[in-house]
Amino acid sequence: MRAHQRPSLADATRGRILFGGDHNPEQWPEETWHEDVRLMKEAAVNSVTLGVFSWAKLEPRPGAREFGWLDRLMDLMHDHGVGVVLATPTSSPSPWMGRLHPETLPRDAEGRTEWWGSRQHFSHSSAVYRRYAAAITDDLAARYAGHPALTMWHINNEYCTYDYGDEAAAAFRRWLQDRYQTLDALNHAWGTAFWGQGYDRWSEILPPRHAHYMKNPTQVLDFRRFTSDMLLECFVAERDIVRRHTPHIPVTSNFMPLWAGQDAWRWAREEDVVSVDLYPDPRDPLGAQYGALVQDMTRSQAAGGPWMLMEQAAGAVNWRGVNHPRPRGLNRLWSLQAVARGADAVCYFQWRQSRQGAEKFHSAMVGHAGERGRTFQEVRQLGAELAVIGPEVAGTRITADVAVLHDWNSWWAGEHDGRLSQEVDYPEVLRAWHRALWEAHLTTDFAHPEQDLSAYRLVVAPQPYLLTDAAIDNLLAHVRDGGTLVCGFLAGVADEDDRVRPGGMDARLRELFGIRTLHEWWPLDAGESAECDGFRGTLWSEELEAEDDAVVEAGYKGGELDGLPAVLRRGTAWYLSTLPEPDALRALLTGVADRAGLRPVLEGLPDGVEAVRRGALLFLLNHRPDAVTVEVPGRHRDLLTGDLVTGSVLLERHGAVVLQP
Amino acid sequence: MRAHQRPSLADATRGRILFGGDHNPEQWPEETWHEDVRLMKEAAVNSVTLGVFSWAKLEPRPGAREFGWLDRLMDLMHDHGVGVVLATPTSSPSPWMGRLHPETLPRDAEGRTEWWGSRQHFSHSSAVYRRYAAAITDDLAARYAGHPALTMWHINNEYCTYDYGDEAAAAFRRWLQDRYQTLDALNHAWGTAFWGQGYDRWSEILPPRHAHYMKNPTQVLDFRRFTSDMLLECFVAERDIVRRHTPHIPVTSNFMPLWAGQDAWRWAREEDVVSVDLYPDPRDPLGAQYGALVQDMTRSQAAGGPWMLMEQAAGAVNWRGVNHPRPRGLNRLWSLQAVARGADAVCYFQWRQSRQGAEKFHSAMVGHAGERGRTFQEVRQLGAELAVIGPEVAGTRITADVAVLHDWNSWWAGEHDGRLSQEVDYPEVLRAWHRALWEAHLTTDFAHPEQDLSAYRLVVAPQPYLLTDAAIDNLLAHVRDGGTLVCGFLAGVADEDDRVRPGGMDARLRELFGIRTLHEWWPLDAGESAECDGFRGTLWSEELEAEDDAVVEAGYKGGELDGLPAVLRRGTAWYLSTLPEPDALRALLTGVADRAGLRPVLEGLPDGVEAVRRGALLFLLNHRPDAVTVEVPGRHRDLLTGDLVTGSVLLERHGAVVLQP
Amino acid sequence: MRAHQRPSLADATRGRILFGGDHNPEQWPEETWHEDVRLMKEAAVNSVTLGVFSWAKLEPRPGAREFGWLDRLMDLMHDHGVGVVLATPTSSPSPWMGRLHPETLPRDAEGRTEWWGSRQHFSHSSAVYRRYAAAITDDLAARYAGHPALTMWHINNEYCTYDYGDEAAAAFRRWLQDRYQTLDALNHAWGTAFWGQGYDRWSEILPPRHAHYMKNPTQVLDFRRFTSDMLLECFVAERDIVRRHTPHIPVTSNFMPLWAGQDAWRWAREEDVVSVDLYPDPRDPLGAQYGALVQDMTRSQAAGGPWMLMEQAAGAVNWRGVNHPRPRGLNRLWSLQAVARGADAVCYFQWRQSRQGAEKFHSAMVGHAGERGRTFQEVRQLGAELAVIGPEVAGTRITADVAVLHDWNSWWAGEHDGRLSQEVDYPEVLRAWHRALWEAHLTTDFAHPEQDLSAYRLVVAPQPYLLTDAAIDNLLAHVRDGGTLVCGFLAGVADEDDRVRPGGMDARLRELFGIRTLHEWWPLDAGESAECDGFRGTLWSEELEAEDDAVVEAGYKGGELDGLPAVLRRGTAWYLSTLPEPDALRALLTGVADRAGLRPVLEGLPDGVEAVRRGALLFLLNHRPDAVTVEVPGRHRDLLTGDLVTGSVLLERHGAVVLQP
Predict the structure, then answer these.
(1) Where is this region: Disordered (chains A, B, C) (predicted)?
(2) Which of B243, B404, C229, C357 maximizes the CB count within 10 A of its CB?
(3) Closest-CA distance of chain B to residue A325, Å
(4) Partners for A (CB, 8 Å, 3+ pairs)?
């Protein structure tokens, strides 16, 4: 099949925003199904995801097939105008599989088996698992290929397993043979001369299992790459099966947000629809910023195109230490934020709250309180509004002048056992940089370090610890071509094999930023800060010697690094050897953006108010704890109320307006 | 044997308070034995427990029997007027059992074997273990059935093991078959439709072993029920053996206090004597209240009758992070508290402090300092006093108008992986409510939610998360019959299978309390509190909509729940959607009790002074850090000094008086 | 071979200080080797350690031998005047060993295998491992016995493994049979009568594996002794092999500092050279004191003779939570401190920083920044200075009048599961006492409790929890002979089998200190302190009753222990029942030393300035955060500058001077 023939999210949305969620009616008596469709209609639900975790229901014993209940459900949904995202049930094998084939159960690094009785107890490398998964997928796809309710395929669910067992070890060796061809190449890549780890036969290689002391970092890195790739193989295998049956139906699998287990850049290329699950903590004062980050990242993985919010919670989740519900208005606010940032589908886990099982306290669109509950009342209002917004935004795009570099390889490699600071957490650093841009009201994309950056006047690289030669060339070209680059500490330290580059930082990058010698890294203790000119740095500092023609934009003040560069610049290439505190990083990036000719979405926005333009619409979202009036030059129409907005608009607490020109 | 023929604690006490403790003379040369009996006489010790952990001594190799040393000990005790509580040694199998029969060793959820070299390394489900345990029990009982020193049987010790291994898995399946009869019933009860856990054959069912993510809550709940029942089977098997030999001798096994592993309501029914081990931390400012709770609970399990304090520490224990001794007077104070609250036996672990082994720093009646040590000197004084008190109290009862509901099923079910708040700890909530009543000087019983509550004018239910239909009927009847009910949050949420009841709370209970809709649970963060009218709530809050005729006794103030009911009342049924801070809960329950016509044991008692009436005696116990004078209307005789008490009495720090009318 | 024929460190130093470090050129292309020797010459490096972790390089498959690369390296070093400390590579078996002989892999107490892929994955008890280790050692020694570069043998590296597996269990039984001869003796020593652990056959005995509850303390103690002895057997086996080939070459293995795994008193007797790895945290305000402690201890293990600093870090390590580099001057300061306290070798891990592997962020003499880096520049300066100092100090000794008692048995036994306080940490207590003496400017040795103490006027015993009868006799004799003894709490509690001595403290010691009765131990909570006359005690307190003729030097004030002795003295025997806060302990020991006629190294030294006399030299080391002037009576020559010093000398921050008379 040729790429241009591939279906996309637009094939499912058809000019609407999808609204709905995971639906597990097999947990309920059939009379409840009819209650469900009545309430779906009330809430303008137009999409449900069926069949996630239904393997035991579909194949209660090896080879059996029980599709009747699903037939009835598909028909019911179709009869009531609700499209179905149909899931392959392969995320949780039936109990019989573990009993008959214990080798399908994963083992962790400590050698512990992961038993059934929960979910996702499958080894990605198990031939038996894959064979059974292919069979049920094939039969499912065959059966429903022509069903009119079918709008999308959802493969598996939140791929996130690993396996350190023997079958995975064999698969790991095959993967390594593909990657390195020879043992010499592997020994070189892994630096096995250190600690006497030289391999003489492929059969000697293991996953990085429990060990006496620190593990080989490149072995661990490759095992993470391998794990992501094995899971992707599982996805592709099922995708290809359903695609054979329904080439016109788009396929997705839901990512978890900012999740270490999958290299989503690689995955997204294999998907027709990029979807994500997003669960900000309602109590997190930066919850909205975190949501924006995930949304920006997901949109970027979807090549800027619309994406699908596959799961969010209408109220509380149940996996935090303390799980808070969404207060009045917040569900609407965060849902509209997703639409503003490119979502063409706003869905939930789940439609109806389970009365049993491990997630019975995880909220749903219809909670335990039922239709009288506040949560459902707000869901109903949101459904009505999305029905209004849908035709105006579906399929439209967002323009960003700023890109944030992100690569799983940097994350993975930076987390090795023997790093200099356990306080440095890659996702936290990423959040800090994105937050600064978000608070500066600059709309941002995420980008892979090797991708074309010509669309961006400003590129920021919070922590590109590992950079391939191609990525370095790419960054150099960006600056050479007039772009601005702002780079955080621990940049270009390692090559693709996590081999430290001579000098502790790639020589071309040192030259780019004007660093003569990187003498020593000076990580900071938890809670410690480093005084700099005009701000305080956190997490990290460095003993840098600048080239004569580089500009020390800010130096360290006092201490061992007194006078050395905290912020160094050569032309439009900036290097930050520390992480400025939030306000300082925001001010710094605002200034850099300003030099680069970038302006915020709207001038004079109060803190905590988010503005995003999507297509012709302007979304204004109030994340402050109070109501606020926002100046909006010109005349707009409030899309949801029809009111005319001239000069300013009042946003209530948790309020949001969508303005049309 | 018919119930009315059963022996009881009275058969052992015969009008005295038993005083003594665990005795392990096999650790000592026989010359020490004679020193022991001399000191026992000095301290008025009249009871020792022999044979706990003596299996290797009695059966050093499979089938061997070495009773000679025990014969000599039994005779020695009898010769010196000390009765013997004889233990079956089955708590710690001999090393040979693990070596010859490794399947008798338990496995934990992670798959780790629990090896010998400590204690309690037996699988409750092991047929081999049970066979050996029965054989040694039978021979022991046969040998000492007629010995005049024998006063009681002590089966095993602190039953607390679990097993996730294969033999336990088989036993679990049998237990489930008994409970559910059919797989359909089990699948329904466990809600296996969630996450595709449907079982097709009994052989697919496992204990809730280590898994990828959250476990099935009902599977976990049933495994806890099963574990308690398996241990109870072990107990009953041994009990029946000794009972065959000595139908006239009472049988017990010692509970651990507020311990999750055994459903003590079920267990107590099988015992002739209910006994408990009690180790409050001498540094815990609420240690006395904790002791009172355990004593009230144990007495209630003994159907209000006298119970046995099987173990306490004369000084420090050795299993806390830091282990503090009992300061001067505290051992006497806490021992008299136990008597006040129904104990007819005050015993210790142990008589003589071990010089070796894991507990050599656990205190004893005779410590390392020997008879000159302060601890023994105080033990001697206590022994003399108990000899005076004994004839006045032995066999008498305590009257309580208040009952605190408690059920292991609520505790177990509420602890599932996917709960809304890890901050909510069932025993802590129970302690908070009992503390409020204790500080209000109200004597309380504990009660099972399904038991007859007609004796109580006030019933409080701190956290009845799981309630059967029968329990709900019982509570409704209590209120209907004029009783007062005060219920804490998370009440009636789940049915017997931990299935959430529609509406998030049983509809009959909602009606009882006047709750129209329970919109959302709002758990509070650690350290967070919720402002209410007149107090602050902790741990939890709720978004409740009251019925029109319900009375909002206190509302939330400010925040998302402003004005919603924190304390709601309909008639004599009260519902607290938060946990008020200690003083507020005390004030609230004092007020409710007052409305219900209940008065404190003594009016005008200072804080920290505990008053309990047992039989005709009034115990006054000073838990304050200083001396205090207590008003006592009327004339009393101080039982221990013979002094006349008119109007008031001075209680020293750690002081206690026992007053007769 | 007779002892007086044994080679020593002097055979390697030949009047110099060894300067250099671990060198792993097999990680680098051969062109780097030539760069290395050029830089070594610049830095006056005269010694490198080769071959640690090179097993896979030397024996890439079973029985293979590849010595060519090492031949070239040995020659290269010799050609450039660099001596070689040649290591046996047995610390990390090649991957093939684990694959072919999985029984060589250790198992931890939880039953987890320690896989290869890190380092030190060998079971000390494995016959297969030992056979392969002997074979490679033999061939290595045969090949390089006559090589002119060879100056010393380094056996293995940081012996620190353990094994709870089956082969180790068998070895443990053999070790126990040697120790106890009969099972009766073992049962007595272990106190197996407690908790029914009596052994009937040797085959029933296991390592102290994962168990239900606390383990038998003496079993654990013996397992620690066994583990240290098994590792020592491994060392001795390799030592004997190399000694056969090169009787004239000294042999060492590097200790880790204050490390629980090896009884270094026993080990040191088997070594020709005592060496240690020392990594104080540059951020630790007590880092210098910690260094001094390790240096004093190592020197004492070397019977006062010179010792070898085998490893230190020129900058950061990479195994702490946050790893800080050494600021300018600190590397020199701490290196000179080692020389002052007896080191005749100042070496590093490692010469050149690795670009790959788990320790690529661990610093080296030549860091990632290369020769331009500050670190290498400072290394070069240090090398030049050591070349000046070497001839003046090599082989000279240090005199101390104070000894600090230390014994691994006390450490091990005191750590048992059932101790009274988890807050009491043996090494921390040792550090506190040594710190007090260090701050008092008293030079101290460490001593084993059973060794001849006649050289010391003052002996302090921070925490001699376990004392053999011989050790007690030794302490009594020390006092009887006019010596002063100051003893910390938990003294003489246990005998060699960790059996509590009657009275909770040995009766002879109680008499020595004037303790009539030790009623109760009163451990203090974390952060709690006990008011005493003139100071506050921490960690611990005791309810002691003094003999009439003992002097209460300080009593507890207030609380339960009011007036009881905190510091008790009878003659020159002092007992501290608490740990005074640092200033108080320093003042107390200063006073005691003064009474004993001891004076500081130099009068009037400012805090934070360390003075040590070695041979004829006076080292002055500034550990303060600022510069300071030190009064030095008389006339000296500054050895490094040649300046005359009269009356006083200025020490810069991190400054050090070496003065000659």
Answers:
(1) 1-26
(2) C357
(3) 6
(4) B, C
Given a cut of 60, whether residue A608 has pLDDT beyond it is yes
Q: What is the pLDDT of residue C5?
A: 77
SS3 C522: strand
pLDDT tens-digit profile of B300-339?
999 999 999 999 999 999 999 999 999 999 999 999 999 9
Report how far residue A331's alpha carbon sits from residue A343's, in angstroms, rounded to the nearest whole number.
15
Amino acid identity, position B161 = T
The distance between the two most distant Cα atoms of chain A, rounded to a whole number of Å, is: 78
Q: Is C69 within 8 Å of chain A by CB?
A: no
State the smallest CA–CA distance between residue A205 and chain C in angstroms.
Answer: 8
Please name the amino acid found at residue C463: Q
Residue of B nearest to A330 (CA): B560
AA letter at C534: G
Q: Let me know if B547 is a catalytic residue.
A: no
In Å, how far are A635, C300, C399, C418, C468 from C451, measured between CA atoms?
A: 94, 11, 17, 30, 12
Q: Which of A158, A542, A553, A610 is catalytic?
A: A158
Tokens 């003893």 belong to residue: C487
SS3 letters across A281-324: CCCCCCHHHHHHHHHHHHHHHCCCCCEEEEECCCCCCCCCCECC
Quick one: pLDDT at residue A4?
54
- Within 8 A of B324 by CB-CB distance, chain C residues are 522-523
Among A118, A363, A372, the residue with its CB nearest the CB of B213 is A118
Q: How confident is the model at residue C4 (pLDDT cuts 50, 70, 90)?
A: low
Residue B660 Cα to chain centre, angstroms: 30
Mean pLDDT over A633-653 rounds to: 96
Distance separating alpha carbons of residues C405 and C138, to the nearest angstrom? 39
Q: How far is the C-alpha of B616 from the C-alpha of B273, rounded, in Å?
A: 23
Q: Judge whether A109 and C117 are in contact, CB under 8 Å.
A: no
Superfamily of domain C609-660: Golgi alpha-mannosidase II (2.60.40.1180)
Q: Which residues of A touch B197 (CB under 8 A)?
A: 56, 92, 95, 116-117
- Cα gap A145→A243, rounded to integer Å: 10
Which tokens go with C172? Answer: 């443990």
Domain boundaries, chain B: 18-90+124-162+251-393, 402-595, 609-660
pLDDT at A465: 98
C2 has pLDDT over 90: no
**CATH architecture of the domain covering A402-595:** 3-Layer(aba) Sandwich (3.40)
Q: Do C106 and A523 touch (CB under 8 A)?
A: no
Q: Is C110 a residue of the active site?
A: no
Torsion from C-alpha of A552, A556, A559, A562, nearest 10 degrees:
20
pTM: 0.97
Tell which A residues from 173 to 192 touch C, by Cβ distance under 8 Å: 190-192
Angstroms from B220 CA to nearest CA on chain A? 10
Q: Take residue A210 and report the two structure tokens written for it.
A: 């429990």
Domain C3-162+223-393 has CATH 3.20.20.80: yes
Chain A nearest-CA residue for B498: A356
pLDDT at site A1: 38
- Residue C497 · residue C218 · CB < 8 Å: yes
Is the domain spanning B18-90+124-162+251-393 CATH 3.20.20.80? The answer is yes
Catalytic entry in C59, C311, C415, C542: C311
Of B196, B215, B420, the CB nearest to A316: B420
Which pLDDT value is given to residue B5?
A: 77
CB-based burial, B44-77: b 16+ in 10 Å, e otherwise: bbbbbbbbbbbbbbbbbeeeeeeeeebeebbebb
Contacts of B354 in chain C (CB under 8 A): 191, 194, 500
Assess contact for B464 and B617: CB atoms under 8 A.
Answer: no
